Amino acid sequence: MQFRCATAYIYQALGGQLTTYELELPYPADNKYISATYIPDFDQNNRVKGYYGLVIDISEQRNAALREQKRAEEASILSERNRMAREIHDTLAQSFTGILLQIGAATQVLTDDLDATQSHLDMVEELARTGLAEARRSVTDLRPQLLEGGNLHSALHRLVAQMRVTVHTTLKYDLKGTAYPLPIEVENNLLRIGQEALTNAIKHANASEICLELVYRATQCCLHIKDDGCGFGVGNVPTVGGFGLLGMSERAEFINAQLVIQSQPGQGTEITVAINCDQGAI
């Protein structure tokens, strides 16, 4: 078989063409890979009188390339798993957290105010439907439902309005500058970072006030989330159990944004994510 494969290239060399090919050779222990080059040998009248053959064992290079390809495939799979993990955490987990908050609020007013109870139950249904829609969108990597038919500003405004109904914490949202459209993936990840920061402050910070501020400048868009809660030591956040902060960091890195987390025990937390924007290129 090797001779038949080489014959066509030998004839090309005898026809005056330099030819090179690679071939896998079966061996009992392991297959070998070779690179063969045939070089025409011309006489003084520029006629082919024969050829030179150069055969090189490239098994190690080929195996190294295959190992690198396998590592690249594994890295791609891991990256996709991390992306899906973030999406599930930022969609289903957020929706279920909202549902639990609504159920807790409904339980508190169940015996005293039936109208208020019904309002909470209606919100539970809306959150459940939102979670289902978000799960479907995560599979196809589409825009979050909060961004449908609007922009980042309107999505954050609706998010804060939804959360106000469920918690006793004072939530404030402010827009500075004139909102302009950002790339879909940028708006998606900024929204998720804001959503995660808001949820973390509500669940863990024991804050009395949380302020969100979205700032549009000529060449930069910034999102600030600040609370007056218990705070924490930024350098002491565990890698296990601190997935929310890790997810925010990964999202910021994905869109080439700068994420700054400032917090100390007893002094609240401030999270800022900023991305440079060229409106003319958007």
Can you tell me about this structure?
The chain is elongated, with a radius of gyration of 31 Å. Among the domains are: 2-57, Beta-Lactamase, CATH 3.30.450.20; 153-282, Histidine kinase-like ATPase, C-terminal domain (Heat Shock Protein 90). It is 49% helix and 23% strand. The strands form two sheets. The protein has a five-stranded mixed beta sheet with strand order 4-5-6-8-7, with helices on one face. The protein has 282 residues and is an alpha+beta fold. It has helices at 2-14, 59-109, 114-140, 152-166, 184-204, 243-254; strands at 19-25, 32-42, 48-57, 170-176, 209-216, 220-227, 258-263, 269-276.
Short précis:
With 282 residues, the protein is α+β, with helices and mostly antiparallel strands.
Helix content: 40-55%
Distance between the termini: 58 Å
The residue ranges in which pLDDT falls below 50 over 5 or more consecutive positions are 238-243
Mean pLDDT: 79
CATH architectural arrangement of the domain at 153-282? 2-Layer Sandwich
Side by side, the strands of the main sheet go 4-5-6-8-7
The DSSP helix count reads 6
Query: What would the principal axes of the Cα set say about the shape?
Result: elongated
CATH structural class of the domain at 153-282: Alpha Beta
**Sheet having the most strands:** 5 strands, mixed
Count of extended strands: 8
CATH topology descriptor of the domain at 153-282: Heat Shock Protein 90
Give the ordered list of helices and strands.
HEEEHHHEHEEHEE
